[in-house]
Amino acid sequence: MLNGVELLESIKLIEKEKGISKESIINGLKEGLQKAYERFYDTDAIIKIDIDEKTGQITMHQELKVVEELDDDWLEITLQKARLQNPEAQIGDIIYKPIEFSEEFSRMVVNQVRQIFQQKIREAERARIYEQFVSLEGEVVQAKVVGMNRENNYVLDINGTTAYLWKSKTINNEVFQINEIIDVYIEVVDKESKLSQISISRTAPMFLTKLIEREVPEVRMGIVEVKAVSREPGKRSKVAVITHNENIEPIGAIIGVGGNRINRISDILKGEKIDIIKWDEDQNTYLINAMTPVKVISINKIGDEYDIVVPDTQLSLAIGKQGIAAKLIAGLLKTKINIFSYSTALKENMDILWNGDTTKQEVETNTYTPKTKVTKKKLKLNQLLKMLKKLQKTQLKKKKIKLMLML
Prior knowledge:
By secondary structure, the chain is α+β, with helices and mostly antiparallel strands. The protein contains 14 helices and 15 strands. It has helices at 4-18, 22-40, 79-85, 103-133, 205-215, 217-220, 250-255, 260-268, 283-291, 315-319, 324-333, 342-347, 360-365, 376-406, and strands spanning 47-51, 58-67, 76-78, 94-98, 140-148, 154-158, 161-165, 181-189, 198-201, 224-232, 236-243, 273-278, 298-302, 305-310, 336-341. Helix 2 (22-40) crosses helix 4 (103-133) and helix 9 (283-291) packs antiparallel against helix 11.
């Protein structure tokens, strides 16, 4: 049977190192021993288990009801046999008969105790990971690449805890080096999972949102808001934004001077091209913005879908390579879109509403007014204008101060 002193030492060690209460360990042991007995002897038997907290000694008793005629010897005992243990026993009394441990059952008990200790350690580790990382759910963190498992998924170290980056959650099967520090997005932290508690990704749309938040102070401060993101990881993405300050141009704020902000984000995403567009509560305007730089002739909502007509010369641009552009726009609007060329729309007698951002004359002459686009030159010009305004305000204040002094 188990050595009582060793058992108590093991309980103390687990309590100290893993932070599991002594009461929880002992209750777990009792539950495990109950299962071991049921498996070895009988599932119907009622047993009482005691663990002496001073000596570590384990005792088990079978609960038996005193009866005149025996019907089930796992649950009952005759009055005659009961009085051998307790001379004052009466019919209906409960007798606790000591259970003798056979050599085979003793081995099973030892194995069961070992399994319970391992289970309690695992439970404590899961609880620790959950408490440590649940507040980071939905955030971008840095992780160190420490290896790969047999399925060629990356094994990462995040603040001393192991996590796995599945190949399916990498950008175009990107390759990392051992000891490389990478950015990952924590999607979910699972309290009960016996596999990987921390679900991480580099392909999630929110990964891009959080990178923008990290790189753009205006987004962090809530001046500019990211309303929607649609991604084809590693290839292209569209981000819809709005400003809560009319003096801040949202697209320019995210792109940065000379594209410095958006370029840093694109580098993290392995060169993913990021289109920033203005969000609008009017769905037609929003759709027109999302289609940039493609001109829109007609937008017709039919049920939950949108039929969009574009100039013949811009059809391939609207759809994009392998349909990526159309897919991203549909992702932004969270609806299905159907894109048609102008000639196809005429041929199929479709309703052409001319509610886009171009005219019939422009389409028929193939001469379009370019859509407004934030360029690096415009960004620099805007910054110069802002600096000039600040300078003018400063000079005005100085003049006011001089005037007050003169008076």
